Amino acid sequence: xxxxxxxxxxxxxxxxxxxxxxxxxxxxxxxxxxxxxxxxxxxxxxxxxxxxxxxxxxxxxxxxxxxxxxxxxxxxxxxxxxxxxxxxxxxxxxxxxxxxxxxxxxxxxxxxxxxxxxxxxxxxxxxxxxxxxxxxxxxxxxxxxxxxxxxxxxxxxxxxxxx
Length: 163
What we know:
Elements: H1 3-18, H2 33-46, H3 49-62, H4 64-79, H5 84-93, H6 102-118, H7 124-134, H8 139-145, H9 150-158
Helix pairs in contact: 1-5, 1-6, 2-3, 2-4, 2-6, 3-4, 3-6, 4-5, 5-6
């Protein structure tokens, strides 16, 4: 990632943390990791901030690295192009100490979870993946492209001379 893009994302993330509404901490936790993970995704989809924060706090106590991976996945699957800037800062926040000091990770992840919950949703990337992965009419395409590297796939997509 180039330095300008990284600084811009850091600035966006700092503003997001600073401007996050002050929601009271949840009173209780969900029973287990899997219920909490499901609740977090459903809460983001439905715009239910209190459910998301309850699930986030439960998951953070159990496995902070898992919650970061799960939130990044939710960002792509459920928000996607509805708020690409929020998806980008969520990936940065969920990358752990690669981009942030340790003490800023939880506030950043929490701010991103709230922002994802309150953002526009756009799930076409997830729908397209499911269609391509499972629909019988795409068997030939799956076979043709399954062994391509990401670089090769990008080259195919940007090749405007193909018919």
